[in-house]
Amino acid sequence: MSDVVTGLVCAVCGTAVSISQALSWKCPLATEADTHHVLHFENTIEPFRPTDDVNPYLAFRKYLAVDSFGAAIGLSEDERIRIITQANDAVKAVAGTGFLRTPLYRSNELSDALEFTAEGGVWIKDETHNVAGSHKARHLFTELLHLLFAEAAGVAPWTSSTRPSLAIASCGNAAIAASTLAAAVQWPIYVHVPPASATEVLTALTELDADVRVCPRLPGDAAGDPCVLRFREAVANGAIAFGVQGTENAWCLDGGRTIGWEMTEEMGPLLDRIFIQVGGGAFAACVGSSLRSAGVHPKLHAVQTEGCAPLARAWENALATGGARNAGPRWKECMWPWETTPVSIADGILDDETYDWIGVLDAMADTGGAPIVVSEQHVMQAYELVHTLTSVNVSATGVAGLAGLLATRDQIASDERVVVVMSGIERVVPR
Ligand SMILES: Cc1ncc(COP(=O)(O)O)c(C=O)c1O
Ligand SMILES: [Zn+2]
Question: Which is the closest atom of ligand 1 to the Cα of 283?
């Protein structure tokens, strides 16, 4: 049986969507004028018993919403496993690696430098060798599987020869991950990037055959990021949202949970705290919901920088208006875009709005965690520490969680066991 995920429900307005509904990216009540809706998955309570497959999408298949979706639209277990395996082989052919559990280990160097005792310490979850060099592909793979399952079961409004293009707005890890997966299955993709994108990233996207669309601000453009405006236009014209924001495509909130399940399986009840760097919030929301579905509760800390910290503000506002849990219906009171231009050397977490804030607040409330806002000095110090003491080639964005640990070290006991996720490789050497 594969029925752990039973349906989707909007965390804002409560609208339910059946698990058998194909292309259920958004709440049916979301409109261009009212984007404040996000579908979350509903799970039954099941003992957590993954299999020991090296591919996380097979090991945790039973707990993935996309597997329940495949079963609900009539694909047999063998067919689902075949599609997952073939897609993973195709990813491997393009990316050099398929999806494999990523390493989780105690960093003795960081543990000593931060004066933890032998009982406690700092554990690194290393996503830098994941497909496309960051954790982003984990989220996108369940969007891809949803598309492949729908196509195979004949419930998609296209065939393999008339596929509409995928679309994303990003000039960083998410764009590279999305283009890698698209290339693997030869699915066309539009990537909307700002004029000032790093040459290294543009070259990588072009090599992956992405249709790169540079988006300057046009006369008459509404407020907001022109890349997002062009992305939304593409989607309105029939493209499929293929990004890592739960508000645009809820199925990114499925596969991201494999990171948390891997940590849970290996360390589970031993863990005291997890620090996650937060941009749009899908990453932290997924780690949070994976912990809950597996029944472990290390404190979750969402980390942002002083230059862009809308989540900590939402946390305070939610506490003041009825509590941090289930704050979705209070979106307007809690979450709005950061007013000043976001700046930080951790430039991958400068989303002016934490789109997936509801899931992140739920997880922090569930686990007794709290948000942390760090200074640029903390990010630089975290970056220096990791590059001096370890061999992980991580970006400033990817160490921002460790900056959260540095900023709060005096409030953490020396025998606690804490995890930081090195979430993305350094692509562009800092100038
Ligand atoms: C390396 C890295 N870490 C963390 C994040 C934050 O993830 P999210 O936007 O889901 O909060 C990003 C997002 O771009 C990233 O590239
Ligand atoms: Zn809704």
Answer: 10
3-state SS record for 99-114: CCCCCEEECHHHHHHC
pTM of the predicted model over 0.90: yes
Name which residue sits closest to atom 1 of ligand 1, judged by CA. 424
| In the predicted structure, residue 46 carries a pLDDT above the cut 90 | no
Distance CA 375, CA 355 (A): 22
Indicate the pLDDT class of residue 430, thresholds 50, 70 and 90: low
CB 293 near ligand 1, within 6 Å: no
Helices 136-153, 282-294: axis angle to 10 degrees equals 80
Closest ligand to C-alpha of residue 396 is 1
Residue 1 has pLDDT above 70, yes or no: no
Q: Which ligand lies nearest the alpha carbon of 36?
A: 2
| Site to substitute for ligand 1 among 38, 124, 136, most atoms within 8 A of C-beta | 136
Q: Whose CA is nearest to atom 14 of ligand 1?
A: 348
Domains of the chain (ranges, CATH numbers): 5-94+136-252 (3.40.50.1100), 104-134+256-422 (3.40.50.1100)
